Structure prediction request, 820 residues.
Amino acid sequence: MKRVWHNQFAERFTWMLYAFFQPRRLERELAVSGFRQRFMIMLRMVIPILLVTYPVAVLGQILLVPFHLLSHPDIASILLFSAFGIAFGIVLGVLLGIALGIAGGIALGIAGGIALSIAASIAVGVLLGIAGGIVLGVLLGIALGIALGVLLGIVSGIAFGIVLGIVSGIMGVIIFNPTVGTTVVIAVGVLLDVAGSIALGIAFAMCYLLGLFRLPFYLVSGPSALKAYLKSRGDPAHVFYYLHRCSLYWDEIVYFPLPYLKQTLLIASAQDAEKALEEIAFIAAERPRQLRAARGAALEMAIGYIEQCKTIQEIAEVAHYLDTIFPQETKLLNPQWSAPITRIRDASRDAQRFSSPIGRVARMEALDDMVKQLKSVHPNVAFRDARLNARLGKVIDIWLALARQEQEALKQVPVYIGRIDNPYNPGYPLKPEDPLFQGRYDLAQVLESVLMKGDRRPTLLLTSERRMGKSSALLQLPRLLGSRFLPVFYDLQSPGIFASTTTFLGTLADGIYKEMQARNLPVEKLVYRTFRDYSTQVASQTILSQTSSESLAPTIRHDSPYAAYSNIDKWLKGVESVLEREDRTLLLMLDEFEKLEEAEQKGAFELSLLLDWLRNIIQYHPRIALLFSGLHTFEDMQEQKGIGWSGYFVNVQTLHVGFLQDDEARRLVTNPTPKFSGEDIYEDDVVEYILDQTRGHPFLVQAVCYALIENLNVKKKERANPKDVDGAIERVFNNFNNYFSDLWNRTDEQQRVCLIALQKAGTASIERLQEQSGLKEHTLWHTLHALLKRDLVRMEDDRYSISTPIFGAWVERNSRYMEQ
Prediction:
């Protein structure tokens, strides 16, 4: 019984609400292309529309009785003409739903039925005017409908002419724009007492604007947003709860600004800045009419962040934050702010350059450029809000003072200090063509061999421990792979990419477009907004194939991404035709793929749908290859997270990024750049000592060499000896303690026991290690396997040891403290 009630009544009344407040959602859930399917859906809506409209129509006519606007004020006439008008309105709604759109048809059936029942009670002849208005509206449009109304008002001066002209114009609006025009008919009754052509023209214009901007519905949506703000101000901890239950989410078409939306978003940012950015990204993608509030909140968040940056090191982080808060694909950066925000971002990058391992002269140039950028901001006219301009002006003054202070301090440093320009840059992915990148040619050869297999190629999975150089290797692939392959890199650590399914797919499409443009391969750009324009002709083929009540039940979630996937699939067909013609292959590289699961947990999108789509890409798109990169294997993800990645990608080839080869690590030490020569700096045995302590670990090699040169400059020394390397290692422990702590924190109890035992033993056989650790043989084998896979332990001649002496020294120093 409950199910029958849902299918026959509750579900249909829900559709009626969607028709007015969420027409795009209704079109997505009930989008059908066949005449029969449209007819059956509209036929099912007849009874619910009648139940809603008839009482309202009768009440509307009763309210007109005191104004002497009814020609037959008796109850029988009221009931009769209400039924007559509603029937006509429902017929119009059914026809419109079949011809143009379900949402518009339902809305017209409701609003038109009410309005026409009232009009019918005044004069039966109005039906002729309605029919004429429809025809004229179709043939000549809104302008002729308005003109007809004014003309008939002048000629006749009676209610019949007024009603005929008004309804003619309104029907023209409805036929040309069902979603906008549905609300116009609500105001018909208001115009019935207007007499005279001038008054009629003004009244019709007002009626049209009421319908265009959905003012009657704004009386519901506006207070809903205001209520969310007031509740959030009193209970900030639940601001996201209130946001998700206000009209921002349940009303898709709000033309006027929602009251205090910007202030609500600012309350949200004070609670959780990252989640607030997700809300702002949602508004930019799905509620463009509220973009002004989203932009305002994003700007306030940006100003609040930079106000807290009062050291050069903090300023250096501003560029990354601005890139996060104003992602390019969401268009949150107002063009009017582009110049000052760009100058601030460039000044931050200059501060980052000053803080990076470069020489004294280069640092001075970085500060000079930073001052130049800050002077070009002009904070007094940066924004329209004088309050924000004043806050920005104070920030610029503070930053300028800091830059000049650093300039003076740098001038006081003797010229011989910092004479050695430090070429190393530990901890950051190396950009394409960076001379610091060494080796990985074996990885490139394997990738090229696999990619040459075409539709028989496996899914590629690149794994390694953190700071081993995965991202750097991926960024170098355009240089390492042959010209037949077009690698496109995506950093999934960027929070803006997961604002929604549309944002994610839009980012993928944008990366493909840019890479193909760079290779002079013409392809049409997939505009971001097309993902929001879910047409009624997509996603329908797999949803409604029958006309029974069971088959008509919606099977797609309200935030269905099916149309977005359909749009990008259509676009990829054009891309693949170009790739086929030019004999090229796209390699989509998804770095830090584990972030996909985190995004699903936050509700950004359905991971299962994305994985289904990616599997389809692998199986049926031979010109597109996928490469995932991360800490874990697919088996690890299933074991730790419970998601069956291996079920989606059965044929997977896992590639491991490990330590550098001896000759590659040696080049990184002695010749990291063309202008740097280790022979002029390192004494005998220094290079060998560095290689022995780091064992070719790419990050540790750079970290030790960077610290070594910094120490030489501080001590005013020109050459380094092995004792200086020991001092550099001490500096590495201080500068990068978080790196070592992360390695330790991601080990379990058995792995820590094993590492401590290995540190004490130096090297040990499996028997000696079992004796030292006290672990059972099976547990010890499992533990060693995990540590070997993470490159924390190495095996040589059936003996085990900690992979790098540096990490072993850190374990010796910190194991007791970390265990406590």
The two ends are 61 Å apart (CA to CA). DSSP finds 39 helices and eight strands in the chain. The CA atoms of residues 178 and 729 lie 71 Å apart.
